[in-house]
Write a structure and sequence with these properties.
The longest helix is centred in the first third of the chain and has 14 residues, at 5-18. The chain is globular and about 40 Å long. With 130 residues, the protein is of the alpha+beta class. The protein has helices spanning 5-18, 30-41, 113-118, and strands at 23-27, 45-51, 58-63, 65-66, 69-70, 75-77, 86-87, 101-106, 109-112, 123-129. It has 2 domains: 5-70, Ribosomal Protein S8, Chain: A, domain 1 (2-Layer Sandwich), CATH 3.30.1370; 75-129, Dna Ligase, domain 1, CATH 3.30.1490.10.
């Protein structure tokens, strides 16, 4: 079992999409749920829901496909438990020239890199999606 739940979640999504699974289950954590909600609001995944009760609580993610190909073509963990990456607002750059996005943990909560720049907030760069 991976000790880093975010990396585990990104790997499960990547693997499920590689074999065209319609959905994937991820062990529940508040941070994973918020990241999944950001992915849902940005259109990278179809639907996010919480299932079950403790200790078997899970997040069910319904994956999104276009022409039998996954909408998400890449996921990359940036800030890791052993090496946190923090950026000031002026240092947050568009991902893949605007075709991707980064999820940033700011003092005002999780948001996309675009929203963080708009609100003039820096923070920890969790991951990149394209």
């Amino acid at each position: 079992m991976a000790t880093d739940s975010i990396t585990d979640m990104l790997t499960r999504i990547r693997n499920a999409q590689a074999v065209s699974h319609p959905e994937v289950d991820i062990p529940f954590s508040q941070l994973n749920y918020k990241i999944a909600k950001v992915l849902e609001s940005e259109g990278f995944i179809e639907k996010v829901s919480r299932k079950g009760r403790k200790p078997k609580k899970i997040i069910r993610i319904v994956l999104k496909y276009k022409d039998k190909k996954g909408v998400i073509s890449g996921l990359k963990r940036i800030s890791k438990p052993g090496q946190r990456i923090y950026l000031k607002v002026k240092d947050i750059r568009p991902i893949r020239t605007g075709f991707g996005m980064a999820i940033v943990s700011t003092p005002k909560g999780l948001m996309t890199d675009k929203t963080a720049r708009k609100k003039r907030l820096g923070g920890e760069i969790i991951c990149e999606i394209w």
